[in-house]
What we know:
This protein is an alpha/beta fold. The chain has helices at 8-11, 16-33, 44-56, 83-89, 102-114, 128-131, 152-159, 178-191, 231-234, and strands at residues 71-75, 94-99, 121-125, 141-146, 163-173, 193-202, 209-217. It has one domain (8-234): Vaccinia Virus protein VP39 (Rossmann fold, 3-Layer(aba) Sandwich). The protein is globular, with a radius of gyration of 17 Å.
Amino acid sequence: xxxxxxxxxxxxxxxxxxxxxxxxxxxxxxxxxxxxxxxxxxxxxxxxxxxxxxxxxxxxxxxxxxxxxxxxxxxxxxxxxxxxxxxxxxxxxxxxxxxxxxxxxxxxxxxxxxxxxxxxxxxxxxxxxxxxxxxxxxxxxxxxxxxxxxxxxxxxxxxxxxxxxxxxxxxxxxxxxxxxxxxxxxxxxxxxxxxxxxxxxxxxxxxxxxxxxxxxxxxxxxxxxxxxxxxxxxxxx
Length: 237
């Protein structure tokens, strides 16, 4: 497959085989975009930096933690990132992609059928506020992510009820201030969670700053969380 103008930093994170799969995904998303508005980040650096690199670098940034062979949840998956990116680089993991848009989940299902992913991948059209109160889903994941979904307080309320006690939640953030840290600490105190570590990088090709906040349960949070649909977004803890 013809190689594009891929940033050099990508080659330090993933293999040639993985790059080929990402190119296949890019082609299929472009095709699906003609019918369903999945994403505008699909060409050049928008795809290779803002989608691919941004999705996978956090899983290389914590070398003391093993992220292989895990049960992975992507909340508000949209066009499939970071969930599909993680699945390509961690082929032994079980993947759950959640989105409230049926058009998007239908498109992702079509994409998955056309590409030879090695994982078991499950695509669910529902709200996380509903799924989190199902016994088959709650406290059942090793890793949970959200990206471009909402503010850190809101997404923490989505993530923490889904994690096992030793699970990890990834908060993808652009700017990060002392005020953001204070607000997140207050939220995590209510949700019985804690910050494990923070990482910050400058994305390649001047695509801006990216902060990753790694969180974990201290103990299982109250069963009232997450609150009913819309509440975490309208009234963050």
